[in-house]
Amino acid sequence: MPKWVKQGNFETIHFYGPDIPLERRVTHLNTDENKKIAEFDICGYRDSEEIYIQVHFTDKKFREDLHGACSKEIQTLMDFSIKYHSQEIAGLQTHDKEILKDFLLGMHQLDTFDAQLKEDLAKPPLSIELPPIKDIQELLTAVANANADFNTICSQAKQTNDVHALWTIGQYYEEKMQDTEKAIACYQEIAPESPDYQQANLRLAELILQPLFAAKSQQISLTADEVEEYDSQYFDCMLNAADGNDETQKFVDSIYADRCGEDGFNPTIKKVGRNTPTLIKVAAEMKKLNERVKALEAKNGALEEENAALRKQLASTTNTQTFFSAKHTIDEVDQVEERESKRLKHN
User: Fold this and answer.
1) Who is most buried in 85, 106, 193, 214, counting CB within 10 A?
2) Which of 193, 140, 148 is nearest to 165 (CA)?
3) Are 239 and 272 in contact (CB under 8 A)?
């Protein structure tokens, strides 16, 4: 499903009332979960070449971000529309295609347009092609600027011809800017089809565990849920890195077997979608069960040793009783023979 879903076309004329001009309207709805622009409408009127754009933001701050990025000429047009349509909506009405292009580019940097939407913008009645995004060196220069907007940087990086752009920018954030949080966010934006996907996830796995190691070294106690969350994120990254890599896959399998705590357990764990937390919980429960089994086996072994000792003691006691019983029988026979001998002599 595309990020932007188109509704309507310019062939349909809308009638809203006797005193309202006949209108043509195309609406683009943003389906992304983390959208900054909810939708925007391109409107036109019959017998008029004017284009009017209505933008619906999810937050007042995003409108202000776009407003601040635009030229004063556009700001004047936007201010008029903001007063007219409320603060959540910004509009633009102009014959000047260059101003319109600048405005759309500002929107594109705030919340990236997908291929279908850019194709729509290149058709009449707009016929506007967005200018090419800056190359990687310009992006790195922007990253060095503390005021650079991270989301804009990432959006532009995805539009460059450099397939390593996001990886390069992530490393720059990590090594030059000492900003691990943004480096992680940048690595997470790298798509599975990217040649940097595996190494990005291996690096993500290392970075995700750093706070956990730091807490242990500083003897800071973490809750079981916090540890499980770190473990889940780490394992998720390792699964991504293992996709198509046999050596990493073997390592991931050994990690999971260790999490389960079972000797001789050799699973093969592939990508599991969003079920990694469940997989980690299963491993934790398996480890508890295995620990219980081992404890019961140890207890059973001790009981068997105790039982063997008792059997040995019982056998020894039985032999002694048999000896005394046999001796008692022999004595009785001797006494009977002695009495019989005396009786015969007497007779």
Assistant:
1) 106
2) 140
3) yes
Structure tokens at 49: 């070449």
Beta-carbon contacts of residue 190 (< 8 Å; ≥ 6 apart) = 166, 167, 170, 196, 197, 200
Those residues whose C-beta lies under 8 Å from the C-beta of residue 148, and which sit 6 or more positions away, are 142
**pLDDT by residue (tens digit) across 86-145?**
444 556 666 677 777 778 877 887 787 887 888 888 887 777 777 665 677 778 887 877
Q: Quote the tokens at residue 31.
A: 């389906």
The structural domains of the chain, with segments of one domain joined by +, span: 4-121
Which residue in 47, 89, 84 sits closest to 67, CA to CA? 89
Angle, alpha carbons 125-126-132 (nearest 5°):
155
Taking the C-alpha atoms of residue 54 and residue 41, their distance in angstroms, rounded to an integer, is 5
* Helices 276-346/246-260 angle, 10° precision: 50
Q: Which residue has the higher pLDDT, 344 or 242?
A: 242
DSSP string, 32-67: -TT-SEEEEEEEEETT---EEEEEEESSHHHHHHHH
Find the distance separating the first CA and the last CA of the chain, reported in whole Å. 127
The phi, psi pair for 72, rounded to 5°, reads -65, -35
Q: How confident is the model over 246-294, as pLDDT tens digits?
A: 777 777 777 777 777 766 666 676 665 556 666 666 666 677 777 777 7
| Contact between 171 and 150 (Cβ < 8 Å) | no
